[in-house]
Write a structure and sequence with these properties.
Number of strands of chain B: 0
CATH topology of the largest domain in chain A: Rossmann fold
CATH superfamily of the largest domain in chain A: Nucleotide-binding domain of ferredoxin-NADP reductase (FNR) module
Strand content of chain A: 25-35%
CATH architecture of the largest domain in chain A: 3-Layer(aba) Sandwich
Strand content of chain B: under 5%
Order of helices and strands of chain A: HEEHEHHEEEEEEEHEEHEHEEHEHE
Radius of gyration of chain A: 25 Å
Helix content of chain B: over 70%
Helix content of chain A: 25-40%
Order of helices and strands of chain B: HHHHHHHHH
Strand order of the largest sheet of chain A: 9-8-11-6-7-10
Largest sheet of chain A: 6 strands, antiparallel
Shape of chain B: globular
Distance between the termini of chain A: 61 Å
Number of helices of chain B: 9
Structural class of chain B: mainly alpha
Oligomer: heterodimer
Shape of chain A: elongated
Number of strands of chain A: 17
CATH class of the largest domain in chain A: Alpha Beta
Chain lengths: 366, 200
């Protein structure tokens, strides 16, 4: 018995002494003092305590760089251009950055430690990105596999965004999901509704986030997300627009369409929405109503597998339907949101119809 | 050559640890980082120096811990392994901090292998052998230094050979670790020649 106690005491004492030694060393050796981080050539200057990663440092200063893996160097979302002062490229970075990225001094901000002054470049829009906490106010079944979430913002209580942008929804730890993961969802509500955010989630079998939304999330639950992100938005021109979407690709257009109604924007737009069966369609009545209020707006739902369902609307693949309707594409702009395959096929059709490639904007699901 | 004076004794310990009793080439300890960081002489030299330093320091600390704490208390058999590892882990942490502060290029060149020195079996092996050999604290320190230098010698030799091999046509199935292990085997054979150097 005495030996056991003595052994425990000796082990504890030895480990304790070493721990104290390390803490003292860290205090003096890992003290990098105050470092200045210059963002976008002087547009913002941060005086920060060195020693942490760039990602963590910026987050502490309220600048949220998108990151899905939580700073462990696996997702490659947190890319930042480090113009000056960056340390050598770590092996964890070379594995995830393309040669073009490295040549342009793009780095993973979670792998770059702030040890000295840095000059970095980030998109200005990231200054507006915030971490939000909200409460799920309503969950609505839009179709058999698509749900609409309405979230009331709590902290901060309001959001500012451009219609077409997305947020990153945090899926908390549950079941087999060992760590929070982030998934991007376009905002479906108009920006005038500043206290709410609506998202449209389609069930992806086996998907971590969608499984959580479909099986565990309840009205009244607290939910966290950051945003707004993304460059998908209406251009500043007056050109006639062709919108193409499928499934939950509805979200950004539902936001844009309501925004146009509120602002009385009379820009010509034809919205092609592709689905398989009538049961896959949603928000049809609302969009028909919108057609009446905005004479320049047309909604064209198209079903590819509606034989025998009594469907008298457009039939066929969305690409064929677009091909039949769109003429004189040279003066038009394309806006697309949906799965990668659908977007690639639709871009081809639009280009064939004469729509200039650089005026086709899309938000591809990955 | 017999250990007549303390100084000669220490020299014998140093040389035998580095050459005749080379931890890598006679006992094949510390192979993982040896194979992984031996592409360039520069980084293998850096890792070799780090290992040598850690080895010397941990041997001294572990010898002191063993002789003055564990042995008098009768805990030397039960706690030896655990406490040696704790001491090694703490020392490596400390050295990682120092290198990060002093030489960033070396820090990045060593990458993940710096923390991995903690589990480099050559380090723990040296500490355990020094106990088996019944060395005192000063002798152990010298033994640790010699053993580390021997490890460094082996990895730098391999890196030098591998650098030259870049232009050689190695059969495809032997590229990388395969040919490195064959080279290591030949080097080990060569080191057998040192055996007769010291008669103890």
């Amino acid at each position: 018995m005495g030996t056991v106690l003595l052994a425990a005491l000796v082990s504890g004492a030895t480990s304790g002494i070493l721990a104290v030694l390390l803490v003292v060393a860290e205090r003096y050796l890992a003290d990098y003092g105050t470092c200045v981080v210059d963002i976008n050539g002087g547009s913002k200057r941060l005086e920060v305590q060195g020693g942490k990663t760039l990602l963590a440092t910026l987050m502490q200063e309220g600048i949220f760089i998108p990151s899905a893996c939580g700073g462990r160097g696996t997702c490659a979302y947190c890319k930042v251009k480090v113009r000056e002062g960056g340390p050598p490229v770590a092996p964890t970075e070379t594995a995830l950055l393309a040669a073009a990225d490295l040549a342009a001094s793009v780095r993973l901000s979670c792998q770059v430690k702030v040890r000295n002054g840095l000059a970095i470049e980030i998109p200005e829009s990231l200054f507006l990105v915030k971490q939000f906490t909200g409460v799920v106010e309503r969950i609505r079944d839009l179709t058999h596999d698509i749900k609409g979430l309405r979230i009331r913002l709590v902290d901060p209580p309001a959001i500012e965004f451009t219609p077409g942008q997305y947020v990153q929804l945090e899926t908390p730890v549950y079941g087999d999901n060992p760590e929070p993961v982030y998934r991007a969802y376009s905002i479906a509500s108009p920006p005038s509704d500043r206290e709410h955010v609506e998202l449209i989630v389609r069930l992806a079998p086996g998907g971590i986030c969608t499984t959580w939304v479909f099986t565990l999330l309840k009205e009244g639950d607290t939910i966290r997300f950051n945003g707004p992100h993304g460059e998908f938005r209406l251009s500043d021109t007056d050109a006639e627009m062709v919108w193409i979407a499928g499934g939950s690709g509805m979200a950004p257009f539902w936001s844009i369409a309501r925004h146009m109604r509120e602002k009385g924007i009379q820009r010509k737009a034809t919205y092609f929405f592709g689905a398989v069966k009538p049961r896959d369609l949603f928000l049809v009545d609302e969009l028909r109503q919108l057609e009446k209020e905005l004479p320049s707006f047309r909604f064209v739902p198209a079903l590819s597998g509606a034989e025998g369902d009594g469907w008298d609307g457009e039939k066929g693949l969305i690409t064929d339907v677009v091909g039949r309707h769109v003429e004189g594409g040279a003066a038009k702009e394309g806006y697309l949101c949906g799965s990668g395959g659908m977007i690639d096929a639709s871009v081809k059709v639009l280009v064939a119809k004469g729509v200039p490639q650089e005026r086709i904007y899309y938000d591809k699901f990955t | 050559m017999t250990p007549d004076t303390p100084a000669v004794g220490l020299l014998v310990i140093l040389i035998s640890a580095a050459l005749t009793d080379n931890i890598l080439l006679t006992r094949f300890l510390g192979m993982c980082s040896y194979l992984a960081i031996s592409r360039q002489i520069k980084s293998s030299l850096g890792l070799g120096l780090a290992v040598t330093f850690v080895n010397t320091v941990t041997c001294a600390l572990n010898a002191a811990l063993y002789r003055y704490v564990l042995e008098p208390l009768g805990l030397h058999t039960s706690l030896k392994l655990i406490l040696f590892i704790v001491v090694i882990a703490a020392t490596v942490q400390l050295i990682e901090m120092v290198i990060e502060r002093v030489s960033l290029p070396l820090y990045y060149a060593l990458g993940v292998f710096l923390p991995l020195i903690t589990v480099n079996c050559a380090i723990l092996g040296t500490s355990l052998f020094m106990v088996n050999k019944g060395l005192d604290v000063v002798q152990s320190t010298v033994y640790g230094l010699g053993s580390g230098l021997g490890w460094m010698l082996a990895i730098v030799l391999l890196a030098g050979i591998r650098q030259r091999l870049k232009t050689a046509q190695v059969p495809r199935g032997l590229e990388g670790p395969g040919i490195s292990l064959i080279i290591t085997g030949i080097m080990a054979l060569a080191f057998v020649a040192f055996t007769g150097m010291i008669q103890s």
